[in-house]
Amino acid sequence: NSNEYQAVFLTNGQAYFGKVKSINPNYVKLTNIYYLQAQQSATAAQPASSSQSTQLSLVKLGGEIHGPEDQMYIARPQVLFWENLKNNSKVVQFILKNQGK
Fold first, then answer.
1. How far apart are CA 17 and CA 79, in angstroms?
2. What pLDDT does residue 69 have?
3. Which pLDDT score, from 0 to 100, does residue 67 have?
4. pLDDT score, position 50
5. What is the pLDDT of residue 101?
6. What is the DSSP annotation of the chain?
7. Cβ-Cβ contacts under 8 Å for 92 (sequence gap 6 or more)
8. Residue 6's pLDDT is what?
9. Which of 45, 67, 91, 93 is the most buried if burial means most Cβ atoms within 10 Å?
10. Burial code of 7-33, b = ≥16 C-beta within 10 A, e = fewer?
């Protein structure tokens, strides 16, 4: 459904969120792309190895040092599956809020 956002899960464990715009036997085209980025933090009172917590944040594609455009062509063999996201999902709500900025 091109009116909804999708989650696209890849064979390397990465997931991208956006809108699937076209699908053919070779590629899936994704636009308006976001991805999860993990950041580990440690509390100062305990050693890092025992008290690390992982914070996940949703990042808009395009701010990276190589300056990619907001579209991605993913080779079909790298795609495990994709699914439509509900409009009330936390990911979609974040994307809609971010677009309003």
1. 13
2. 78
3. 74
4. 57
5. 53
6. -TTS-EEEEETTS-EEEEEEEEE-SSEEEEEEEEEEEEEEE--TTS-HHHH-EEEEEEEETT-STT---SEEEEEGGGEEEEEEPPTTSHHHHHHHHHHT-
7. 5, 85, 86
8. 97
9. 91
10. bbbbeeeeebbbbbeeeeeeebebeeb
**What b/e sequence results for 36-58 when a residue is b if at least 16 CB atoms lie within 10 Å of its CB, and e otherwise?**
eeeeeeeeeeeeeeeeeeeeeee
- Extract long-range pairs of 33-37: CB within 8 Å, 24+ residues apart: 33/60, 33/61, 33/62, 33/70, 33/71, 33/72, 34/58, 34/59, 34/60, 34/61, 34/91, 34/94, 34/95, 35/59, 35/61
Going by their DSSP bridges, the two strands 79-84 and 71-75 should be labelled as unpaired
- Give me the average pLDDT of each 10-residue run along the chain (101 residues): 91 95 92 87 59 79 77 95 94 88 53
